Amino acid sequence: MDFTAQPKPATALCGVVSADGKIAYPPGVKEITDKITTDEMIKRLKMVVKTFMDMDQDSEDEKQQYLPLALHLASEFFLRNPNKDVRLLVACCLADIFRIYAPEAPYTSHDKLKDIFLFITRQLKGLEDTKSPQFNRYFYLLENLAWVKSYNICFELEDCNEIFIQLFRTLFSVINNSHNKKVQMHMLDLMSSIIMEGDGVTQELLDSILINLIPAHKNLNKQSFDLAKVLLKRTVQTIEACIANFFNQVLVLGRSSVSDLSEHVFDLIQELFAIDPHLLLSVMPQLEFKLKSNDGEERLAVVRLLAKLFGSKDSDLATQNRPLWQCFLGRFNDIHVPVRLESVKFASHCLMNHPDLAKDLTEYLKVRSHDPEEAIRHDVIVTIITAAKRDLALVNDQLLGFVRERTLDKRWRVRKEAMMGLAQLYKKYCLHGEAGKEAAEKVSWIKDKLLHIYYQNSIDDKLLVEKIFAQYLVPHNLETEERMKCLYYLYASLDPNAVKALNEMWKCQNMLRSHVRELLDLHKQPTSEANCSAMFGKLMTIAKNLPDPGKAQDFVKKFNQVLGDDEKLRSQLELLISPTCSCKQADVCVREIARKLANPKQPTNPFLEMVKFLLERIAPVHIDSEAISALVKLMNKSIEGTADDEEEGVSPDTAIRSGLELLKVLSFTHPTSFHSAETYESLLQCLRMEDDKVAEAAIQIFRNTGHKIETDLPQIRSTLIPILHQKAKRGTPHQAKQAVHCIHAIFTNKEVQLAQIFEPLSRSLNADVPEQLITPLVSLGHISMLAPDQFASPMKSVVANFIVKDLLMNDRSTGEKNGKLWSPDEEVSPEVLAKVQAIKLLVRWLLGMKNNQSKSANSTLRLLSAMLVSEGDLTEQKRISKSDMSRLRLAAGSAIMKLAQEPCYHEIITPEQFQLCALVINDECYQVRQIFAQKLHKALVKLLLPLEYMAIFALCAKDPVKERRAHARQCLLKNISIRREYIKQNPMATEKLLSLLPEYVVPYMIHLLAHDPDFTRSQDVDQLRDIKECLWFMLEVLMTKNENNSHAFMKKMAENIKLTKDAQSPDESKTNEKLYTVCDVALCVINSKSALCNADSPKDPVLPMKFFTQPEKDFCNDKSYISEETRVLLLTGKPKPAGVLGAVNKPLSATGRKPYVRSTGTETGSTINVNSELNPSTGSRSSREQSSEAAETGVSENEENPVRIISVTPVKNIDPVKNKEINSDQATQGNISSDRGKKRTVTAAGTENIQQKTDEKVDESGPPAPSKPRRGRRPKSESQGNATKNDDINKPLSKGRKRAAVSQESPGGLEAGNAKAPKLQDIAKKAAPAERQIDLQRSQVLGSDGDSLWDIESSPGNSPSDLDRLKAWESSQEETEDSELVKGSVLKVQQGACRGLFDSI
């Protein structure tokens, strides 16, 4: 039944109204009263319904005729009839009556109208059951009411709102999914007419609509939600004001009582916004107000709401309402943690749905990535990674950079999330290539970054990197060929640090495998106390390689018990770690062991998890024989040019070199997997390639894996031998070394093979062709080290007649005077490279002999010491360049350190030689300091060097470069932790505490600092401050923890030293005074930094006899060697005067790098420059201040920088006319003195590694500049004439060890400015040159006048022959040395025109 625009025409009715006013019924319809049955009533009412249905509004007569009937049907009898069918029919009649009589209803009573509409509304509930036989009548009723808009009559009623509320509630309650669209349409028509044609919507009526939007109701009746949604969309223009008023009452005025829905206000806003944002045009400003509420929970609720509004897919709220967006972004910095957390969570949806807003979010996410709350930092990572996994284009490089930073977060949970997130991105976009090459390039850095994390100390980080490598970088579940291709190109594309990390990872896994293998070997041995002790130590070592070592110890012990009881489990583990275990076998073994240890009753088994960690680390899941063969085939394809190298972003040369490096690394960890003819044939092919690195790696692989070549592969052997001989004789130095070691490792007749190399090489040595010397020297050195019994004696003559006499003691070529202290390897002269290898040959020869029966070690040590004293220029002919001298100094210092690793040679190294070696770490050349420190650390960390060498790191406090000081501190931390851990893990180590306990470094450090050449005056505050800084540099690390009352122990050592004398010069009071002064400074530092040092020392420390004498009986030394005032200055760190030179001259800008601060002469600077001899403290203080800025710069010290030419203000006694512009470098040269690598030196900024050339021409009419003095000892006449100068003049003007700058006392120090300021020379000449006495090794052989044979040549006119130069070295080969000469071997060296040979100490 469907009412269209016009009703159907009514049929003629035969009924009439009786004259007495009775009700007229339609024809055929009898009177309807309560006297008839219900069925009869229904029958008659149906006929009445039919009659009214057929009537239209134009039937005036019929309308008048049936008016009484209409009034009758509205009586209480019908409205309250208990029968629902009766009520339905009456309702239909009433609906038609309203249609027929519209626009005026036949009912005039407001109460009656209200009752009628409430009655009709109640009948609409019948719409709920669509399967009811009466549903069509209910639909007709709804359709009629909607079409006619009958309810609009109620607007005239005072309480119409009650009717409308009832109607809306009824319609929303009956709508369901069985209704068709017509039902929903009529309901909408009915309700929308009420909303749009009324004077307004009351709060109660609005609630009846909005309640259907609340999530709870929405979930219960989805159709009512849809109905309300469409209704609101249709009436948006009318209802928006009502909605705005509602939210204003609740949000702004806080009147929550206005509606029962007040507590759901934010849910409603979200739903309304999703329906139509226009519904909330007036509400959004109110939300901005709420965002600034003082109530954190309220702000949190608004943030949650707005996060959904801004983040929804089709929302343009952020662009339409910028003020609200900006206000919302401000909540990222909210003080309330949950608000910040909610803001961060929103960012993920926002990035995915609105990439255009990423720019706005980036800065706020950056701040939150450093949030103090762990959960927020964690969610920042989740947010970015989630968006990136959806589409990498959604996140910019900056956002990925935040994740990269968090891989180093202090919290493990955050680090783990960042690392795993990056790993997933790498696998998706790089391995699988899901977004093309551009996306893969964007995240190509991830592989390097993840592997860099392996450098972290935490075992959790290391284990996670190993897991990521096995699952994401090179997934172990790939087929062998695919897996090796992935590894091959990954290794070729890694940066050097990542390669080192990956190599270290394989090394650690291999080491752990060896530990487990040794544990299994212990199980095979009979039970004994020694066996149990060894097993316990091995278990502790294994536990250290697992997460949470404390808990791991218990689990490892339990696992060890299981291994002892279960032989099958033991055999499975043996198979897993056997060299022949394949990757597939390893997988089976791991599963089998895990199955045996699993407990079905215990779903979470921490013991099993720990064992799985162990198995994952030791299982060879990547490499086996098949994998090595696949790698070799890949490398062969690269050699042949048939590989996909270019497609993988790697050049063929890089692929070959990296592939061979990869095989070289794997040859250490999986040597057995290489043993096949096919693999060795490919390696032989590599040996024939022109690439030196490739050939070198191939030789090393043969060395590591070829133990069975001689017996199993004779054809390979016969091909390999001549190649190795050729490489040992004419290959590169590295190839020669590996070739010699390879022959020694894999051939049984190695003596014959090595002799065939040794003899022709030793006969063909020619110092006149240094280019052809380097490889033979390397080969000879390694041969003599590997086979000393056979070659030590023949090598002695080579050393004496060629190495020392012909090579080291002659300078055949003149070095390039480029002014730099370091040059790249390719720029180093062949002669110097040969000399460096000659020094290494001496060391290797001695290390092979391992004895000093021929006193060769003493001679070698004296030679090396002389090399250091002469600054690398052993002949002192000034023909060698500064950069080459740096190379030779480094070689000499490293050689002494290498010899010290052998106990028999350590014993004969004198304290003076040790001190010379130590001072290399303060060398003026940055690279020398850097490389020497690395070598020192490497030897110490392996416990190869005696403990006294760790004291050398204290001198790093003087290094002018911040990075070097930081590196030294890290080295100290590592060394100390390793020594302490070694003592804990090795019970037998307690017997060697003197050489292992880190605290025992204190006496060595005190002695070393007491003999520091910078420490010349024991009461000089500046010098004491430097001593204090060096002491604290070491003590700070030692005193981090007070383990076993170590603070009191160190204090006791310093006190005990004051009861002894310096064994180096026991009878010299000044030397002992300096020693005691350093002790007092150390005590001062310890007392000030620790309140626990006053406790009793756990044991009486033992002092090294080599450096300290035995304390005399009844000797008491309670004297304080530093004044109270000095003590206060040292502790309070009173600021020193500001450095004028450093303040005036700013660093010069240079493209692409931060320039070094260059110290230059200024008004005050020139005064200090000239008068610093008379007022040395001023110069040293200013130099210290000037370098403070320079110390922080990161530019290489050995680069030449442009120098600013400045004016120098004339000083007293200087002609103002002649004192014009002076080159800044030259003007300050005198102030620089001989400072090498000191922390607070002017020269550290940029001048310390530059030999500044004169830019100004000398005025021909002026006095000639004096020639630059040689660096040897002064001529005897001058030396004797100045021997009696007082101490004030003798005082060094600036502390340190710099050799590049001319000393202030030297006339050559001002030679560049002589033409324009001649009186500067006069002042320099008038000032008496300082004299400094230093310690020389006691075994130094002296000349007839007490001069060193090395030093005689320093005098003008002397030109010693080769024989004279060799006397010092050859003297050690004679029977004995004169004891008187040994005792009197203290050489006094003058600081004047020529500094002595040893002034560099």
From TrEMBL:
What Pfam families does the record tag this protein with? PDS5
Chain residue ranges for the region called Disordered: 1150-1379
- Comp. bias (Polar residues): 1159-1179, 1224-1234
Q: What is this protein called?
A: Sister chromatid cohesion protein PDS5 homolog A isoform X1
- Give residue spans, biased composition: Basic and acidic residues: 1322-1335
Alphabetical list of SUPFAM superfamilies matching this protein: ARM repeat
Protein's UniProt keywords contain DNA repair:
no
- PANTHER family xrefs: ANDROGEN INDUCED INHIBITOR OF PROLIFERATION AS3 / PDS5-RELATED (PTHR12663), SISTER CHROMATID COHESION PROTEIN PDS5 HOMOLOG A (PTHR12663:SF2)
- Stated family: Belongs to the PDS5 family.
Q: Does the keyword Transmembrane helix apply?
A: no
Q: Where in the cell is it found?
A: Nucleus
Sorted UniProt keywords: Cell cycle, Cell division, Mitosis, Nucleus, Repeat
